[in-house]
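User: Modeling request: complex.
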Amino acid sequence: MRLLLLNPNTSRDITDLITEAARSVAPASVELTSVTADRGVPYIATRAEAVIGAGVALEILAEREGQYDAAIVAAFGDPGLGAARELFSVPIVGMAEAGMLTACMLGGRFAIVTFAEALGPWYRECVAMHRLDARCAGVLTLDNAFRSVGDVQNERADMLVELARRAVEEHGADVVVLAGAPLAGLARKVRDRIEVPIVDCVAAAVLQAVTLATLNPRAPAAGSFKRPMPKESIGLAKPLADWIGHR
Amino acid sequence: MRLLLLNPNTSRDITDLITEAARSVAPASVELTSVTADRGVPYIATRAEAVIGAGVALEILAEREGQYDAAIVAAFGDPGLGAARELFSVPIVGMAEAGMLTACMLGGRFAIVTFAEALGPWYRECVAMHRLDARCAGVLTLDNAFRSVGDVQNERADMLVELARRAVEEHGADVVVLAGAPLAGLARKVRDRIEVPIVDCVAAAVLQAVTLATLNPRAPAAGSFKRPMPKESIGLAKPLADWIGHR
Amino acid sequence: MRLLLLNPNTSRDITDLITEAARSVAPASVELTSVTADRGVPYIATRAEAVIGAGVALEILAEREGQYDAAIVAAFGDPGLGAARELFSVPIVGMAEAGMLTACMLGGRFAIVTFAEALGPWYRECVAMHRLDARCAGVLTLDNAFRSVGDVQNERADMLVELARRAVEEHGADVVVLAGAPLAGLARKVRDRIEVPIVDCVAAAVLQAVTLATLNPRAPAAGSFKRPMPKESIGLAKPLADWIGHR
Amino acid sequence: MRLLLLNPNTSRDITDLITEAARSVAPASVELTSVTADRGVPYIATRAEAVIGAGVALEILAEREGQYDAAIVAAFGDPGLGAARELFSVPIVGMAEAGMLTACMLGGRFAIVTFAEALGPWYRECVAMHRLDARCAGVLTLDNAFRSVGDVQNERADMLVELARRAVEEHGADVVVLAGAPLAGLARKVRDRIEVPIVDCVAAAVLQAVTLATLNPRAPAAGSFKRPMPKESIGLAKPLADWIGHR
Amino acid sequence: MRLLLLNPNTSRDITDLITEAARSVAPASVELTSVTADRGVPYIATRAEAVIGAGVALEILAEREGQYDAAIVAAFGDPGLGAARELFSVPIVGMAEAGMLTACMLGGRFAIVTFAEALGPWYRECVAMHRLDARCAGVLTLDNAFRSVGDVQNERADMLVELARRAVEEHGADVVVLAGAPLAGLARKVRDRIEVPIVDCVAAAVLQAVTLATLNPRAPAAGSFKRPMPKESIGLAKPLADWIGHR
Amino acid sequence: MRLLLLNPNTSRDITDLITEAARSVAPASVELTSVTADRGVPYIATRAEAVIGAGVALEILAEREGQYDAAIVAAFGDPGLGAARELFSVPIVGMAEAGMLTACMLGGRFAIVTFAEALGPWYRECVAMHRLDARCAGVLTLDNAFRSVGDVQNERADMLVELARRAVEEHGADVVVLAGAPLAGLARKVRDRIEVPIVDCVAAAVLQAVTLATLNPRAPAAGSFKRPMPKESIGLAKPLADWIGHR
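Assistant: Request completed. Predicted assembly structure:
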């Protein structure tokens, strides 16, 4: 099983982090390929950056089309997820969706805990987009600045643990989703310091990608996710233009 | 990884069916144990039978406690799921929840397609219980009688395929969940006759149980699913009474 | 009119308490019979205990079938309510549902106030099950331990009054539902110490049972609550097995 | 117990009809007073007429204040219900609210069945106002003209029975609410011709008024239904102006 | 374009205030007529007063029918709005609806900020009536008494600014709606003291009335807002009775 | 007032169509500038194309920044709307949002009627994104192919009128939104052939842009739409990169 781990950000250290977290849970049979965006922003944190990241994700998926059995869009707000599912025939997994749905199986309501206040609005819209508001106890964010996104999980581990505790005690969360690619791998380290199950989004996404690829669903030929008819375009990255044009 | 596949019904042929479907997707590392209820009804189809099946599921889980790393309650309406999660420390997977959440990752809205009209109301309440109404395009049921629940998937295959097509064309489903333990394994057989991805609930449940057990979440010591304090009881099956009494 | 007051718990002192509260509002024409569960737990406080209590409730209802014109399942989370309505032809009233719907007629949003933190999650799921979230201002619970469930309403009266006040002032409740059989009768005693109407669930349930029995609705022969077809079973209490088997 | 049955319409034959339906279920201890509006329209059927009826209802309630222990606003859309609850200290029951909440205790989802297409929009808004959409299977209306509103229940009985059947078969209703004062008493006559429980709104309203008056809730001194402070006004009916002015 | 600015309250100083606010944004082509209610209360602040104001609004609209191309019901809770839309053929704008919908275009969630605690419940019901709960971050009200409703915006400006800040910081509002006719014109004065966009409801209502009148929609001849059939009535203001009677 | 009418598609004939529709309602004081995307697809009809269009919209807005007082993203699904509002300080109007919110002021529930089946899923997600599901009676689409998107409104006028009628009669719509830039101007032509008010989205968007620009709201310095901090990027169009980098 060939799995594409797609980082729609330009930060290679984040790619390394998520690749390591992915390998730690992927079955031996999984052949994992990681890709870092070569255009865009170092770390997607706002609605506008998500628009950019969504476009980049589609470009990478088109470029590698045929080389993977399932793909993971490894940014928490799932930029371009629906678009990717519509365009490509293999399962596409979003890190946020996978993390939240996995959390649903471990309790009644999950909280999303993350490291930067700026991520709050985008993450809240992501919860609503997936229609999971009734299962979400809250999105809690740290408000202090951090030195480096690649190292934020070490730098802010104690504060994130504290925030997770608040999510449980004050917001009634049964499960905590540690959200954002930069927190990949943290869940395992702080597992015993938080009193409820914690979900690592990268780990969840990898396991869900394996689940979907194993189920081997057919590509839709009907419904709202069937591949659109061929279409001409101007100025798009060539592989994406070719894929959209059915060339 | 030890997986308990718990059939809260008394039909051994259903247990055989789901065991086979489970084995077809379970990784080699999974040690699968199937159990059939020794009290209850042959097949849970109503709210009252779900109450009975829920009690039976808790009894079986208590009896085998310590012998599994994750368990699957293999009846579509997830009888006793929340109760089981609250009582036991390992992941418990519900066939309906697993099927529906897996379907969420394959499209926008799923339809639930099943073989008996009597199942409709209970299944609809199950969708609501999981707060997934906004993702559900409908619950569609056959209305004809069938000869044997153990063979209904062969007897009614064509009609179920037709119903799934209607779910897509008339109800706007992007994914079809073939619901009910008696339909285990059917998805694979009819995969190419339905124009959207189909989810086999047993397969989904097994893969989600593997996902959760791999994530290895801690047992909650806070939140609404922490294990209740010890409590005395009268007249319960001994292993369940002992577990509730922390003995 | 014969009314069955069914305590699905094994505590006889609770049965006495609710019987007294019931008698204080029941019209003279009501012949009231109280039954205490002879198996189960002393007081249902969790999801798992509700599963057990639901089974017990069905057993008692089957055992007494034909001896009552309406029945009340006298535990706040309404264990087995839907199942009971489906199986039996006379009106079945749930204490939580009756309390909440009655409260709806006294204001816009009600708060549920109760004596034990452990009850919170189960009660919140009960609100959702009845689709009354939009009318519920919150579920507020005391967090201190109490000596005896049979005397908790006296022991904790002041704290419950204080909690009810907070429900009004901080949560915007227009009405307070004092929830849980052990609080039966308390509403009358603290009526003038809380600034909004208070609903006693047992009183509400009795009056709603009278209402339904007076309306004398027919048993459904269609819809999702018509009595299921006869079904064989193994190992159930004989009266319940006979009733499910239409014997 | 003194019960005020307030018809906010000007049709005396409707008042007679609802009075008879009320008497048929009211306990002997109830002293029933019926009032017909002396201004307004013969039968409220639209949003604008409901505005007029709401004002008339408040006038009548103010005029009779002190002469009743509970009052029923006997028009299905509950004109002025919230306003009346806010102004007056005794329980006020709305025919629609009472009918719908009573129906909730007899099944999962109710349908509203009525005799005139024009009533549909207003009734649908009434369902939403009470936040009961999730419990409502539909509002079904006859579309033919009728000769007389006072006799419509006889003239259209067969068609209403047919409509109720469609509500069950096509819309999945578990209970049917026969809506509108002109249908008072019809439920009893057609009880055995419809396969699910039917709710007579006047009967339900009377029994709910008895329930609330028996509970004897205090008038709110806090929350959103406490009586407003005294206020001057111009041109209102004197008793209403006096009551609003705390005179 | 002739615009009717209808104050359903009896306070002429409020009419002056809203007229001035209206003129400050109305295009030169708008011919603005203001009307003050000659019966009712000085300022609508409760559900009961809204019932009265709704009736008054319909009377004024009927009296002036044919003299305006669009009308504004200038009280925040939109008394009689649906009724007016149903009766009259030109666009009718509600101050609350216009303010909230305009705010929706300036951010994700709006907060409603107003000057009197008594307005809270009525305003919250207004949000629900328009089905905008998911877009509303909260209704925040001052709790101190004020000297004069006509001057409350000057007297309480600082406290309202502070409340708006809390709406942003604690409730997550992206936009603030300054609600209530007495606050007309305040938004402009405090624009730079609040960190998010502020909506003046009168200004929004005038501009939305211009928008609707420019679109020049036809009067509905179908759907739930088509004009009701002629109806007789008793005791209504003559122009309203004539209009309802199609005379 | 300078208004930017931004067509995120590459079809110049569509730009001409919407420009004409815009001019027909814009006040004389509006200086209208139209821009056609120079990269992307001829007509956005799917989720993936919306991702591309969203990126293009941000590029155009950045390129012209400072040259407009308000902008309209003239594609019905509002690609990039939230992102644009977050990045830029002047009001940004989405054609879908403007059309739907305007429709809300003309009735209870609107239907969206459009010319291509492929648009359905994306439009439905757009309704959900704006949290307007409760106000939407349905999204109805023609299912036949058409010759040219630039002429589809003439070619398919009769079928669209028929579809709008069905929206009213079968789906209970009070208002019809003719959706999609290619239908700009059609509403006026078919106004008298549909029995309820019809909303032209371009006209609505222009008038709402005028409304917002007239209100002159401040750019948010707090809340979820305040401009993000400066950020480096790679490979973006220079004006967008500069704007994101605060250069």
